[in-house]
Write a structure and sequence with these properties.
- This is DNA-directed RNA polymerase subunit beta.
- The protein has 209 residues and is an all-alpha fold.
- It has one domain.
Length: 209
């Protein structure tokens, strides 16, 4: 980030809901791939845990703008595209942890899948637990199994999407605007979850560039 920014730029839930990126692989800049590979390689080559801690907390200090400029236009089926989505999810969680925790908890109650186990969040899941989950997932990209971390993020997306849909059904008659907002977020999260699952499969096959 340049010196003109004195605090991290906020990336609101509304921006997340309307975010579109990575639709045309032909428009991807090579620099996005180079920086993504260099970032992961640097983290894995270092024995200093502070390196990973700084990478995990990068947007807390610098905001999301620099990462957006690097990676937001990358294909959803690429390393920079995957990193961008994980950082974006972490930022969404940290900026609205209480509400996201509520939606996630609701999702675990209505979704009859193993996604809660895959995501790995403590139950019940409150704001502190959901924030820690976001950090664990991002840390896993740099120090653990990359594909597993992507699967955990995808599971988080599916669970929270189910929670959004469930709450939308509850409030539809009383506050239809809120129901529409939640439905839109559910669709965005479902798409992001699908993209991250695809990236996990590509990584296991050695094809995530």
């Amino acid at each position: 980030m340049t010196d003109e920014f004195h605090k991290p730029t906020q990336y609101s839930g509304d921006k997340f809901d309307t975010y579109e990126g990575g639709e045309d692989p032909a428009q991807i800049l090579r620099v996005a791939h180079d920086t993504a590979h260099a970032l992961v390689a640097r983290a894995r080559a270092s024995d200093d845990p502070a390196v990973v801690d700084r990478l995990v907390a990068y947007t807390d200090e610098h905001g999301v703008d620099a990462l957006s400029e690097l990676w937001a236009r990358s294909s959803a089926k690429s390393l920079p595209g995957a990193l961008w989505r994980i950082y974006l999810l972490r930022l969404l969680i940290r900026q609205d942890s209480e509400n996201i925790a509520y939606l996630f908890q609701r999702g675990t109650e209505v979704l009859g899948t193993i996604d809660a186990v895959v995501a790995g969040a403590p139950m019940p899941t409150g704001p502190d637990e959901i924030t820690e989950l976001a950090d664990e997932i991002l840390r896993g990209l740099f120090r653990g199994d990359f594909a597993t971390a992507l699967d955990r993020a995808a599971a988080f997306c599916r669970i929270t999407s189910a929670g959004c849909t469930s709450v939308a059904d509850d409030v539809d008659i009383v506050t239809p605007e809120r129901a529409t907002e939640l439905t839109r977020r559910a669709l965005r999260l479902t798409l992001t979850g699908d993209e991250l699952s695809t990236c996990a499969r590509l990584d296991r096959a050695g094809n995530l560039d």
